[in-house]
Write a structure and sequence with these properties.
Elements lengths: L3 H12 L2 H17 L3 H4 L1 H8 L16 H12 L2 H13 L4 H25 L2 E2 L5 E2 L2 H8 L3 H39 L3 H16 L2 H30 L4 H12 L17 H16 L5 H6 L7 H30 L5 E2 L4 E2 L2 H13 L1 H34 L5 H17 L3 H24 L1 H14 L2
Antiparallel strand pairs: 1-2, 3-4
Helix pairs in contact: 1-19, 2-7, 2-13, 2-19, 4-15, 5-11, 5-15, 5-17, 6-13, 6-15, 6-16, 7-8, 7-12, 7-13, 7-15, 8-9, 9-10, 9-17, 9-18, 9-19, 10-17, 10-18, 11-15, 11-16, 11-17, 12-15, 15-16, 16-17, 17-18
Amino acid sequence: MLSISKMVAQIDAFVWGPVMLVLLVGTGVLLTVRCNFLTWRNLPWALKKTLSKEARTKSRGTGDVSPFSALTTALAATIGTGNIVGVATAMVSGGAGALVWMWISACFGLSSKFSECMLAIKYREVNEKGEMSGGPMYTMKKGLKNKKLGAVLGWLFALFAVIASFGIGNMTQGNSIATSVHATFGVSVTMVGVVITVLALLIIIGGIKTISKVSSVVVPVMAIFYVAAGIIVILGNIHNLPAGIAMIFKMAFSVKAVGGALCGNIVASMMNAARYGVARGCFSNEAGMGSAAITAAAATTDNPVRQAYINMTGTFWDTIVVCTITGLAIASSGVLGQIDPSTGQLYVGSALTIAAFSTVLGKAGGYLVTIGIALFAFSTILGWEYHGEKAFEYLMGTHKWNMIYRIVFSLVVYTGATQTLELVWNFSDIANALMAIPNLICMILMSGEIAKDVKEFQKIKS
């Protein structure tokens, strides 16, 4: 008889297997082609708009928060432990070449992120409280021609989003903060649990406006802080960088399993690199999962396509910028594939990233990575609360229970911080995949409408 945890682990491996990854990347390829590559061609324009003063105001159209705040709240949920721990895990399991496949999945993920956000804004509603409510569940209910199919897909998406919000968006993040702070600074997990629970409660009670205010400050600051530290590490190991980059591309496209001077004991083939790179890339930037679309629907905008371009840049910032910094820091450090003296095993996860940063920054490298994990994970808790709340509101048919959800969600953070969570990790991973399936089906069915709206906006773009 299989134990529950082993059974859940097997289901997790299946739902995140080749079929799911082909569906995620394949949907991105389809949308990119149908939109005539406009999501790629307009990326520089979208980045310029994101960083403009206008994006920080609510001067154009209707909504609850500014375009920039909607992006940073979505980024709060996506820039998380995946950018530090996930990249390291992918490079150990799939070799250094996994980084290239993260980039490839992100390029097509731009179109998926754009499409789900555009549809969410187009089909959003105003609730009885006067707040915006939107996301893939509303798109499915109102946008799909087959109303029965739309109602079923919308309900399933909302259900899995609520489950995922408590797992991947809450307990696993609280656990990452508590274990990393305890390991580096020796603070008890109970104390860390109490502190992050109280902080989460204080911010979350205020709803989207408070969450977006905190996110619009914390997310840019933490990203700049982490990227700056990563660049220092890369520059400190600059003599290894050309060999590191050569190894990354060699391992990404080699049919036979290969290693490299900077890879230690790690040998991997193209298939392995693709599998882990795409899986961790999709997991990190959440393109195609539909979660970011819920936050995008709160943005103040006069055109769904305009805001979708701004939200689309989240995939660029998350994977092309932050994940790349982690990957290059590891590849140039010489610690990939080396043995961790404290465990006698290969460096993996956060220990690998800490070891890479420590090659230049010494003990401070460990402190910086730990602080990065804590900030990234805490911001994920805030962003995911809003995703889960809106999905919960959809299931209940009213906003009146939202405050109860906020309080329960905040208190669950403590449970995550103080318990061992292998089962929760796997279970929430499954919920994440099950969220993506109805969203991807919806985008494929509505790809013609997405392409039409994109091409129409191109004529009035300003």
